[in-house]
């Protein structure tokens, strides 16, 4: 499966990053793109692709899994702290 953004990330890497960063809430799972982008970079070894491109790829897959996505990958954004 290729994402519409046609990024070089492997689907398995995207899924792994999402699952490791998703926080369960009563209404479903919440994914912080700032956390997921960092996790994806570690998993894939890609430190060149822009945060925006990586976040878009993550969001596309996370939404397909029914997750709520928080776009907080902006420079200087604090990592979303969830209990």
Describe the structure.
45% of the residues lie in helices and 13% in strands. The protein is of the alpha+beta class. The protein has a domain at 11-67. The chain has a 3-stranded mixed β-sheet. β1 (23-25) and β2 (28-32) form a beta hairpin. The model is unreliable at 1-5 (pLDDT under 50).
Q: What key attributes describe this structure?
A:
3 helices; three-stranded mixed sheet; 13% strand; 83 residues; single chain; alpha+beta; globular
What can be said about this structure in brief?
By secondary structure, the protein is of the alpha+beta class. It is built from 3 helices and 3 strands. The protein has helices at 11-21, 33-44, 51-64, and strands spanning 23-25, 28-32, 68-70.
What's the helix and strand layout?
Blueprint: H1 11-21, E1 23-25, E2 28-32, H2 33-44, H3 51-64, E3 68-70
Parallel strand pairs: 2-3
Antiparallel strand pairs: 1-2
Helix pairs in contact: 1-2, 1-3, 2-3
Q: What does the overall shape look like? A: globular
Computed structural class: alpha+beta
Compute the number of strand runs: 3
* Mean pLDDT level: 82
The main β sheet shows up as: 3 strands, mixed
Beta content comes to 5-15%
Instruction: Report strand order across the widest sheet.
Output: 1-2-3
In terms of quaternary structure, what is this?
single chain
The first-to-last residue Cα distance is 33 Å
Q: What is the string of SSEs from the N terminus onward?
A: HEEHHE
Query: How large is the count of helical segments?
Result: 3
Give the C-alpha Rg: 12 Å
Low-confidence stretches: 1-5
Helix content: 40-55%
């Amino acid at each position: 499966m290729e994402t519409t953004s046609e990024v070089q990330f492997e689907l398995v890497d995207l899924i792994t990053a999402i699952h490791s960063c998703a926080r369960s809430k009563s209404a479903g799972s919440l994914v912080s793109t700032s956390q997921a982008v960092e996790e994806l970079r570690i998993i894939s070894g890609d430190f060149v692709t822009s945060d925006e491109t990586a976040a878009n790829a993550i969001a596309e897959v996370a939404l397909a899994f029914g997750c709520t996505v928080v776009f907080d990958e902006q420079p200087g954004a604090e990592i979303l702290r969830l209990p």
